[in-house]
Design a protein that fits this description.
The complex is a heterodimer of chains A (258) and B (118).
Chain A lengths: L38 E7 L2 H16 L3 E7 L5 H12 L5 E7 L4 H7 L5 E5 L11 H7 L10 E5 L16 E7 L6 H4 L1 H6 L2 E5 L11 H11 L5 E3 L8 H16 L1
Helix pairs in contact in A: 1-4
Chain B lengths: L2 H15 L9 E9 L6 H11 L9 E7 L1 E5 L5 E4 L14 E5 L3 E8 L5
The chains are: A alpha/beta (258), B alpha+beta (118).
């Protein structure tokens, strides 16, 4: 029953015993009297199947004591560079792995593999070019990882500030990266993303001298959507401001590894 | 942008909700609750739904979307209010410690079957 309805979003995930409902099956009794106009209560979340799969993932991550971060942002905000640098600093003390989602290409995976961390690339074009990673896609990617030998798993989601916010993948924490080339008002335009995250990075601050960008306004806008959320001003390139972000990651991971 | 996947789920859940003894029943209407904070564009959803419901019991069915406003309660002063601007602090005491009461819905409430020979 757990997987009922999981064959969502073109990624058919048939399992044995998957109890499909086939109302038109030939073994069904035929209704002869009128049923027109009848209302049938359903009351189900449309993304039920994803939520169920996410809780399966979450339970597994809890059993294996792996801290899972879902890292999201718009395209080009510096997710991969941030991740490269984050891995460099965390890897001596934590066993890390990455699941990286892109619609096409393995370029990000190739860059991240240089860190020495196991990397699983998901190309969602197999799944119809989805704009987000769904829980069953993560579950499939876990086949390529040994969770027993991991402390931290970072999921680099598809670059998109809309859809990934809607899909729980079983993660412990969510972080969003906004870069200073994107406009201070982005948090107000994509409130769900900033509402759903536990931390935000304001990245590429090394560019501030060349831009007319109000970093304080951007941070204030983030806090207007999600008061009290930690906002880290960082440059993944120069690693300026990186320590508070790394400390946040370590604190979250240590909490899970206890 | 993920309306196609959502539309496919709607068709799947609605199809599974037709009682097994009503073979051949067609769905005339699907009643949905969509919170204002959910990342769904109703027009896109309608468009995708028409595409994915073809050749199913839901072909030609109408999607009735009830938009649910965003409401929150302040955990500091218990004030309850509607959020219609992108600002999530309590207007009464300015606390940011709030709980959303509604606005994140993406639910199928019910389906309505078509009159026969519709």
């Amino acid at each position: 029953m757990l997987l009922d309805g999981i064959n969502t979003i073109r990624a058919c995930h048939h399992k044995e015993g998957h109890p499909h409902h086939h109302p038109h099956g030939s073994d069904q009794p035929v209704e002869t009297h009128s049923h027109g106009g009848r209302e049938i209560k359903v009351v189900r979340r449309v993304l039920d199947a994803n939520d169920i799969m996410a809780s399966v993932n979450r339970k597994l991550f809890a059993e294996k004591k792996v801290f899972v971060l879902n890292l999201m942002s718009s395209p080009g905000s510096g997710k991969t560079t941030t991740l490269e640098k984050t891995l460099q600093h965390l890897m001596p003390d934590y066993r890390c792995a990455v699941i990286v989602g892109d619609i096409c290409t393995t370029q990000d995976a190739d860059r991240l593999a240089a860190s020495g961390a196991p990397v699983v690339q998901i190309n969602t074009d197999e799944f119809g070019g989805d704009c987000h990673l769904a829980a069953h896609v993560i579950e499939k990617a876990l086949d390529g990882l040994d969770l027993d030998s991991l402390d931290i798993l970072i999921v680099e989601n598809i670059g998109n500030l809309v859809c990934p916010a809607e899909f729980d993948i079983g993660e412990d924490k969510r972080a969003v990266i906004l870069s200073v080339t994107e406009g201070e008002d982005k948090p107000l335009k994509y409130p769900l993303m900033f509402r759903e995250c536990d931390a935000a990075l304001l990245n590429k601050i090394d560019l501030l001298p060349y831009l007319e960008y109000d970093a304080k306004l951007a941070a204030d806008n983030i806090l207007q959507i999600h008061p009290d959320m930690p906002v880290f001003e960082t440059s993944a390139k120069t690693e300026e401001g990186f320590d508070p972000w790394l400390d946040w990651m370590r604190t979250c991971a240590n909490e899970k590894l206890k | 942008m993920h309306e196609m996947g959502v539309a496919m789920q709607i068709v799947e859940i609605a199809t599974a909700s037709i009682p097994e003894d009503l073979v051949g029943a067609r769905v005339a209407k699907v009643n949905l609750k969509v919170g204002k904070l959910s990342a769904i564009v109703p027009d896109s959803l309608q468009f995708c739904f028409e595409a994915v419901s073809r050749d199913t019991a839901l072909e030609g069915a109408r999607l009735h979307i009830m938009e649910i406003p965003v409401r929150a309660v302040c955990n500091a002063c218990q004030n309850e209010w509607g959020i219609d601007q992108p600002a999530f602090t309590c207007p009464q005491c300015q606390s940011g410690d709030i709980t959303l009461l509604s606005g994140r819905e993406l639910d199928i409430e019910s389906i309505e079957l078509a009159e026969e020979d519709d």
